[in-house]
Write a structure and sequence with these properties.
CATH architecture of the largest domain: 2-Layer Sandwich
CATH class of the largest domain: Alpha Beta
Number of helices: 8
Structural class: alpha+beta
Number of strands: 4
Oligomer: single chain
Largest sheet: 4 strands, mixed
CATH topology of the largest domain: 60s Ribosomal Protein L30, Chain: A
Distance between the termini: 9 Å
Helix content: 40-55%
Order of helices and strands: HHHHEHEHEEHH
Length: 222
C-alpha cells in the first residue's frame, strides 16, 4: 500500500492534538500508550452499558471482561498492510480460544484497527479484514460465529500511538467480552453465579490444548 496525502489541515490538527496529549502525560513522553494509566478495560459501548445495567447483568459482564483482559492478551498486531496472522498472533489467539471455551455463555466482539498510513476508506476495509481474520481463526477452533456479537472495523480512528508513520502497535485487533449469549440455558435461567462457580471448580483440572497451525482462509494478503 502506498501512503496517500491527507491534506495539510488534517495533518496540522492531528499533530496539534498529539502535542497537547504529550505535554500533559508523562507516559506519552516516554513513548508509552496514551491513556494507559486510565483505561482499566471497563470502557465500552454506552448503549450496551445502559442495557446491561437495567437487566442486572452488568456486574457479571464487567467482572468477566476484566478477567479476560487480565488472564489472556486481548490484542494482536499485524505487519504493514496485512491481515495475515503470524505465528505470534496465532499463539495469542489460541490462548483467547482456550479462555473463551471455558464460558459458553459469553459473547465477544472483535475490533479491527490500522495505523494512519493510507486513506481512511482503505484503512477501514483493512481493519475489517483483520477482524475477519480473527473471527475465521476462532471458527476454525470451534467457536460459533453466533457468539461473536459483531465484527467491527475502527480503521485508523483510535491509534494507541499518535503518529502518521508506520506503527505496529496501531495495526491490531482487540477481542472483548460483550455480554451473555442469550440462547444459552444457564443465562435464560438467570443463574449467573453458577457460571462463575462452575468455571472456578473446573479450572483446577482443565488441560490446556496445544497450539496448532492455522491455514488462514479469508484473512487477506500483504
Amino acid at each position: 500500500m502506498q501512503a496517500t496525502g491527507k491534506g495539510y489541515s488534517r495533518r496540522s490538527l492531528l499533530l496539534g492534538a498529539g502535542a497537547l496529549a504529550l505535554a500533559g502525560c508523562d507516559p506519552a513522553r516516554r513513548g508509552g500508550e496514551l491513556g494507559a494509566g486510565l483505561d482499566e478495560g471497563a470502557f465500552g459501548n454506552a448503549t450496551m452499558n445502559n442495557t446491561l445495567v437495567q437487566s442486572g447483568e452488568i456486574n457479571y459482564v464487567l467482572d468477566l471482561a476484566r478477567r479476560f483482559a487480565e488472564e489472556v492478551p486481548s490484542s494482536i498486531t499485524f505487519a504493514f498492510d496485512s491481515a495475515r496472522l503470524d505465528g505470534r498472533a496465532q499463539a495469542i489467539l489460541q490462548r483467547q480460544v482456550n479462555w473463551i471455551r471455558q464460558f459458553p455463555e459469553l459473547r465477544f466482539r472483535v475490533y479491527g484497527h490500522t495505523d494512519l498510513v493510507g486513506s481512511e476508506a482503505y484503512n477501514r476495509r483493512l481493519g475489517q479484514r483483520r477482524a475477519n481474520a480473527v473471527v475465521a481463526f476462532f471458527a476454525s477452533r470451534g467457536i460459533g460465529r453466533d457468539r461473536l456479537e459483531a465484527v467491527v472495523s475502527l480503521g485508523e480512528t483510535q491509534p494507541l500511538i499518535v503518529t502518521e508513520g508506520r506503527e505496529r502497535r496501531n495495526r491490531r485487533t482487540v477481542t472483548e467480552v460483550s455480554g451473555f449469549y442469550e440462547r444459552h440455558p444457564t443465562v435464560l435461567n438467570g443463574q449467573y453465579a453458577e457460571v462463575i462457580h462452575r468455571e472456578y471448580v473446573a479450572s483446577a483440572t482443565r488441560p490446556l490444548e496445544p497450539v496448532t497451525p492455522f491455514s488462514g482462509g479469508g484473512a487477506g494478503g500483504e
